[in-house]
Every structure is written in C-alpha cells, then in structure tokens.
C-alpha cells in the first residue's frame, strides 16, 4: 500500500467516527483534536477502528504520531 492508500483509510475511519467531518475539506496538516474537534474518546475509537481495519496496534504513547493525516499515513506505512 502507498502513503495515499493509508491516508484514504485514515480519513475513511476518521469520518466514520466523526460523520460531521467532510473528508474533502481535511488538510494534510489538520490536527484531529485541535483542528477537527475530536475528543479523547473519539481518538480512542479511531485507534480501535484502525486496528480493526489494518490489524495495527497503536500504543497510547504513539497517538501524537497519528494526529494529522500526513503523520498518520507515515505511521501506518511504517507499522502495518
């Protein structure tokens, strides 16, 4: 898979968790909490969704590494 594939998966799962987010308007550097308004429970649900979809374990210490679509696609590329 490419980084673009991982970005698309990340955005798909993000929008399932927060359906009010339009994936077309999410920028590469948009922070999921600061810019997109996810709370800590939403972040946990996103981590679970990514685990279910990709089989990747994301420890809490790594949450900052999935805080934006760019960071997340890089992280997923390295860890899936």
UniProtKB/TrEMBL annotation:
InterPro entries: ACP-like_sf, PP-bd_ACP, Ppantetheine_attach_site. Residues 1-80 form the Carrier domain. Keywords: Phosphopantetheine, Phosphoprotein. The keyword Phosphoprotein applies. The keyword Phosphoprotein applies. Pfam families: PP-binding (PF00550). This is Acyl carrier protein. It comes from Jannaschia seohaensis. The lineage of its organism: Bacteria, Pseudomonadati, Pseudomonadota, Alphaproteobacteria, Rhodobacterales.
